[in-house]
């Protein structure tokens, strides 16, 4: 029996099915590529937030009565948290101002505010606790964020004008020593006088 070949309709149907399957495969591959790209950017965003958090932890507290208004230039020259307030960079850059690889399309921002000890929220009144808020965004979407609390009590005078060192004159050291010396020597002299007096009295009695 002679085998029958594919009809035109069957060929068209098979082509349509093959085309649909190919489109589905391409779609899945494209979606997987986008997913991998988003995951990579997410990891990059988390790294950018962590590195900035480390920077602000190592920076001076700054003013105890204001938040400052930020500063321009590379962050390596920043000396206090006030200089970070309102800072933003797109693409994100390192402390020396060099754009970071793999961060195209991302924006890193920093803001500083006072922490209300009662509510834990923001307040316009200086409280001695500054909160540094760090965000990394892609467009309007926040990919990663963190807040770092810094306390003036913990910072001490770091970032402020250091207190004048305590001064001490030579008399502050010598006078107590002199008093101690006078007390000790006075007791010894008195003891010697008593001994000598006793010896003389004893000797005088024998001579008589």
Entry summary:
The protein has helices at 8-57, 152-155, 170-207; strands at residues 87-89, 106-115, 122-123, 129-138, 141-151.
Describe the structure in your own words:
The protein is an alpha+beta fold. 44% of the residues lie in helices and 17% in strands. The longest helix has 50 residues, at 8-57. The protein is elongated, with a radius of gyration of 40 Å.
Helix content: 40-55%
Query: In one word, what is the shape?
Result: elongated
Beta content? 15-25%
Q: Kindly state the mean pLDDT as a whole number? A: 76
SSE pattern: HEEEEEHH
Indicate the low-confidence ranges by residue numbers: 156-180
Sum up the structure in keywords.
alpha+beta, 208 residues, 3 helices
Fold blueprint:
Blueprint: H1 8-57, E1 87-89, E2 106-115, E3 122-123, E4 129-138, E5 141-151, H2 152-155, H3 170-207
Antiparallel strand pairs: 1-2, 2-3, 2-4, 4-5
